[in-house]
């Protein structure tokens, strides 16, 4: 099937070339027939010029332009173009002698007036060559543009696939880390046979449901993410009992904002994990605000200068995810002093959705 298509394509190209050269022959007959009343002599002379024109044109479009001009080998292009000009000039002179000897029978006065002028004959031949070469050059440029565009598309697709694979890898790291912390909390309750254990299992069930069915989505509704955070905070309140004071404030001006899932949880996890209990209380303040499709997430907790937050898997992966999902569309500020650890994340999720 492919071979048949190839043969048909070549036949079609051959017919187009044949039709074109027939048109050139008609042009020559008219062009070189100016001032002459003998159509047959003009036709014979035009036929003699056709092999010269065809050879010159094909050398130009199949050798000089693609091999030297397009590849920017300008010295060789000029050199071989000069060779071609010299050879074609010689052949035109031969055609004039042909007109004089075989068509006019050595009678210079009976020669076609046009064929007496070598510059006029050269103009006719090179006019055809230049027109065809211009079209060939334009076609090569169009093909090169298409190939460049196709290559750019493939590169973008490859980059997108790599980006998706890296994001999946980061999520795979976040999930076990998150589950490890949560199961540790529940294990402690089970050891104490606490009455809150069933409620804790229910909260964990909600968290797992979110992990299994929401976290694999590219984007989730901000309200769903907030509900997930609240379930996690409820679990931690059970674990810390009276030693925890969590303030979670929300100020949302839109119900339709979507973000990447599991984006805020690593910061909240680190606050519980690395937060320092001072005067018998671990204070954590969390706030999420939205203004004109911009999200401001802030969290701060008790800390000491010796606490190390930036080495955790969750924080490192979250920073990488932010760079992949929201390049140039987020601002993450992490401050750590002797008393507090603070995180501020300014996010433009709308831009990320457009890029995604």
UniProtKB/TrEMBL annotation:
Keywords for this protein: Kinase, Membrane, Transferase, Transmembrane, Transmembrane helix
Domain of life: Bacteria
E.C. designation(s): 2.7.13.3
Any one GO MF annotation of this record: protein histidine kinase activity
Pfam families membership: His_kinase
Domain Signal transduction histidine kinase internal region: 166-244
KW Membrane (keyword) present: yes
InterPro entries registered for this protein in UniProt: Bact_2-comp_sensor_kinase, HATPase_C_sf, Sig_transdc_His_kin_internal
Listed PANTHER family: SENSOR HISTIDINE KINASE YPDA (PTHR34220)
Protein name: Sensor histidine kinase
Species for this entry: Winogradskyella pulchriflava
